[in-house]
Amino acid sequence: MIISPNILYDTCYGKYAIAAVNVFTMEQVHGLFRAGEKANAPFIVQTTPVARNYAHPNMMLAMIEAAAKIYPKAKFSIHLDHGTESHAYDAIASGKYNSVMIDASHDSFDVNVNKTKAVVDEAHKKKVFVEAELGVLSGVEDDISIDEKSAKYTQPDEVELFVERTNCDSLAVAVGTSHGAYKFSGGQGIQFDILEQIQNKLPKYPIVLHGGSAVNKDDVKRINNCGGKLSEGAAGVAPEEIIKSISYGVCKINIATDTRILWTRVHREFFKNQPELFDPIIPGKAYMDAYETFMLEKFDLLGATGKASQFD
């Protein structure tokens, strides 16, 4: 059952958060929907422009539509993550997405406002929800690469004017998280003073936390034990910080890196331990099972387990 994000956020605000998970493959779609139905937890399934280019937009949407039939009790939104103007317009025109993100955060404030407002105006004609971004996150995700020197925190004094001028429905903010597996190299963590100021400026307004993966240190070690070369100094968002952020108006928490690390760990271990095998179905099933377990734990962390019944 597809649900608009504004309904999800109005219900969860200050109580629990919605996991927004990027998917690229059939195994990930199965794992996400299977976990969502089993946990009775609402979620947001996200596709990025890179995922759409990899599988083709029609294939991505067909997998999601098929999953909705296979798992009829799942409650979810379909979201375009990190779209440019053209990506957002294409997703809106398709009639398949009920939420899009326009990411003009790398532009000046005024240009960001103009690009975002144009997308919002078009999206709202079709009752499509729009997420915008203010501030710049560091890290690497898909084809986005921003070094720490180029990142900048969201300025609380700008958020009220930005939302007023654009009429966007939710706002992704830069408060210390980052994209990719190389997070928090400076050890700063989430800047709750900034989050608090943003909430004071935008009371009851849904805030989005990008770069919400935890980066499981045990998974990183297991990957490296099987020939990987990931940095063992990488650190994600601590569970206690995720929980704390919810009380500051964070309604949506994006997850991508953790599912990629999980994929790598499952497949590296499988082929190292069973080098005589070559059938992709066997590790594929193992990944779906591991993905389901991961998402069940994530729904518990966010307080979303059992909450899908609120949307019956």
Word description of this protein:
The chain is α/β, with parallel strands linked by helices and 312 residues long. Helices cover 47% and strands 16% of the residues. It has twelve helices and eleven strands. The chain has helices spanning 5-12, 26-39, 49-55, 57-70, 85-94, 109-125, 156-166, 192-201, 217-225, 239-246, 257-273, 281-302; strands at residues 18-22, 43-47, 76-83, 99-102, 129-134, 138-141, 144-146, 170-173, 178-179, 207-209, 250-255. The strands form two sheets. Strands 1-2-3-4-5-8-10-11 form an eight-stranded parallel barrel, surrounded by nine helices. Helix 6 links the parallel strand 4 and strand 5 (129-134). The protein starts with a helix and ends in a 10-residue tail after the last helix.
Give a concise summary.
The chain contains twelve helices and eleven strands. It has 312 residues and is of the alpha/beta class.
Taken from the alpha-carbon principal axes, the silhouette is globular
Distance between the termini: 9 Å
Strand content: 15-25%
Summing up helix and strand content along with how strands pair, one would put the structural category as alpha/beta
Secondary-structure element string: HEHEHHEHEHEEEHEEHEHHEHH
Q: How would you write the strand order of the largest sheet?
A: 1-2-3-4-5-8-10-11
- Identify the quaternary structure here: single chain
Sheet having the most strands: 8 strands, parallel, barrel
| Helicity range | 40-55%
Pick out the low-confidence regions. 139-150, 179-186
Distinct helical segment count:
12
Return Rg in Å: 19 Å
Number of strands: 11
Average pLDDT: 91
